[in-house]
Write a structure and sequence with these properties.
The complex is a heterodimer of chains A (457) and B (150). With 457 residues, chain A is of the alpha/beta class. Chain A contains 18 helices and seven strands. In chain A, the strands form two sheets. Chain A has a five-stranded mixed β-sheet. A two-stranded antiparallel ribbon of chain A has the order 6-7. Chain A is flat, with a radius of gyration of 27 Å. Chain B is built from five helices and six strands; from the N terminus they run βααβββββααα. The chains are: A alpha/beta (457), B alpha/beta (150).
Amino acid sequence: MKKILAVTACPTGIAHTYMAAEALGQAAVEKQVDIKIETRGAVGVENELSEADIAEAYAIIIAAETDVGEARFDGKAILKVAIGEAIKDPGKVIDQAMALPPTTPKVIDQAVKNREERSFQVTGPYKHLMTGVSYMLPIVVAGGLMIAVSFIFGIEAFKEQGTLAEALMTIGGGSAFALMVPMLAGFIAFSIAEKPGLAPGLIGGMLATKTGAGFLGGIIAGFLAGYVVQFMKTYIKLPKNFAGLLPILIIPFVGSAVVGLLMIYVVGTPVKAIMDGFSGWLANLGAGNAALLGLVLGAMMAFDMGGPVNKAAYTFAIGLLGTGFYGPIAAVMAAGMTPPLGIWLATLLAPRKFSAEEREAGKAAGVLGISFITEGAIPFAAADPFRVIPSIMIGSAVTGALSMAFGATLRAPHGGIFVLMIPNAVGNLGMYVISLIAGTVVTALILSVVKKKKAEV
Amino acid sequence: MELLDIITDETVFIGLEASSQEECLQAMAGGMEKAGILSNKDVYIAAVAEREHKGSTGIGFGVAIPHGKSSGVQTPGLAFARLKSPVEWNSLDGKPVQLVFLIGVPEEAAGDAHIKILIALSRKLVHAEFREKMLAVNSTAELYQVLQAI
């Protein structure tokens, strides 16, 4: 039987909220419809709808004149009516709700939802880091693509004064990428200490860039700024008359001074040494070690499909992209594309091992795959984790290793297959495509073998 | 806590003569003031009028439940009127109103027992059978009898 939910609310919360609830309840009994009604009135929220209720509901009626927290109903069939309508003609309202077109959770929506839920769940330093990364990402995308477009005119075209290529390079490389590390540091600090953390974080990030401590230095600057400001907010108690000075004068000044001096005198030099050492190592990486790095990054991308491990590999590669190393980001993007692509191919190669629904979802996974949305593999991995996750990890590791070994490079941080169409954006394009295809095929073949036959079909 | 605790003889008007919504509210609020429910009648009436302005409280079936949450209310209270002749109330179903329940709630009264009883009344009014009983009421004593059943 279809289950219906309803929420009723009105500003005073004495009369209409409850009359509407009563009327809907009565009409539902007459129509033999299963209903649960949440009331938000003067005595607070009663009979609150649980996540399970919402998940199994066919449709949700909102009869309210105030906010009822609608976001929790995302993706559901929703009928909004005036609260008076629910009182006057509850039967009709219920009929309308029952007649709403059914919503089926789509693979794409699910992937997006998974992604959002995860960002809600994470806490602590990892959350702060991810907040920083998520604010930085648009800048990296803007800058990376701008640079990629400038390469359309030739790899060296931007060196010509006054050309469009030079302008694009100034926008992307000179401006967007210059903001990258400060943004990262600023919003790590923002995530920890809210608004007061932003200024010291941005400044610390800028210093990380200037001292050559780069991406790693930026992360340190962000956490430093965040915790220093958080400490100041907690422990500095001023007399009431001066309390207003704390956020506008004392924290920006003292916080930035502390963070800045630490960056210059303490953090900068050793971190620069680490970064330089690391850069040197990367620059002189033999094919074997390069393949190993690609293998590890690739497997990480597939391990949790958009989760912390995946993001760690991606963040690492982004940091290197900002430092001028274009190999790892190429490996990471390709390895992030193969899990959904491989699954899509597997649904074609071995249709008997997938339900009709899964075969349909496979097409969507393919679309997500070419767009570099690794989350597209999640529905399949969730249904059969012990077979699917190792399969996609192996495929991604193959792709990552090949991409690195072939020395493929990528100048943009995202974009999936579409970025491959920009001339000069990808270095060693032919071999890069082969790496991508190889991982996809490996994933699909392993899946075709290890997946169990479906009883139906 | 029962409904009878918040309604008194002074706030029951059987066969009230009123030619307009305003006249009706004035008379009923007057009774509430006498019964000590209101501390400031004008402030309360203004709150009720504002609520009406946002959307009529005429819920159809000849019933209206004007209400106001206001600092002009001292203790939660209820007034009841059965009008001699129906008055216009902009009701949801367009019909004039014959039964009026006027509810007064102090500004700071969330979650209190009086509120719960008023909520119970609101719920009850949705049922046709209850409304019919109310329409048939001819004396204060009869009203109390019906209300006691809530």
